[in-house]
Amino acid sequence: MSAAYPTAAGAHPLDNPARASLTGPHAHFAERLGRVLRYPTDVSPWLALPDLPDAEDWADAAALAGPGASVTLTALREPPPGDWEVTFRAEGVQLVDDGVAAAPEAEAVRLGPADVPEMLDLVARTRPGPFLPRTVELGTYLGIRRDGALVAMAGERLHPTGWSEISGVCTDESVRGQGLATRLVLAVAHEIRERGETPFLHASATNTNAIRLYESLGFRLRRRTSFLSVVVPPDLPVSDRIRGADDARAEALH
Predict the structure, then answer these.
(1) Which of 48, 101, 142, 152 is the most exposed place for a label (fewest CB within 10 A)?
(2) Are strands 163-171 and 47-48 parallel, antiparallel or unpaired?
(3) Which residues contact 239 (CB under 8 A, 6 or more apart)?
(4) Residue ranges of the N-acetyltransferase domain (predicted)?
């Protein structure tokens, strides 16, 4: 169900990776209104605007999310409208495979919906970033167990055509320093490479230790970006746009 939408001249899929995912391999997840797309709220918080959004796009984004809702944005060239409250902003970096020594991991187990309670518990303890009840559906997730307990995991999130993002990398404090995160990142990269795709990932620009680790593994800096959480104006009037957004959400459930 992917659709063609105009992009900025010379744009690369990784310049707006949430949008490239929702108009590409993740189109089956997409809730859409006009030119605006987003993931279901139990899958991912990302909302994707066109590369060059106009006032109608912002109105559609507000209607699709709903009054007072919080959404996560990236790849913005201009700030949100003044009546959108920015509740979180972080500078980040995007790194791409530049000779990563990808390799399978013998200790890794494949994780699925039955493992979600444990995955959510690990995420709550380690805080690697957004992980929701259906995030596991976005791609391959691998984990390592010790004494039956999930102590480390890594998986895939955004999926522009030809690319797959490594995300959800986390390790329980009890096993840190054993290289489990590195082994899982290389294993997920191997899974991505086996499909003929290229791994990439994002990290906080302030997390210099993680950036150095990823660069040592063979990732290179491609670009700098920003991540924002914004709140839709709470006084959005009921309109045909909102009714259209409700229809879009209902369509995505079928």
Answers:
(1) 101
(2) unpaired
(3) 63
(4) 106-239
pLDDT for 172-221, tens place per residue? 999 999 999 999 999 999 999 999 999 999 999 999 999 999 999 999 99
Closest by Cα among 44, 42, 41, 37 to 19: 37
Strand duo 219-231 + 85-97: pairing: antiparallel
Helix (H, G, I), strand (E, B) or coil at 115: helix
Alpha-carbon gap, residue 202 to 252, rounded angstroms: 27
DSSP type of residue 237: P
Q: Which residues pair with 94 in a beta bridge?
A: 202, 223
Q: Is-above-0.85 flag for pTM?
A: yes
DSSP E strand boundaries for the chain = 31-33, 36-38, 47-48, 70-74, 85-97, 109-111, 141-146, 149-156, 163-171, 198-204, 219-231
Q: Which tokens is 30 given?
A: 């997409």
Alpha helices for the chain (secondary structure H): 17-22, 55-65, 116-126, 180-194, 208-217, 240-252
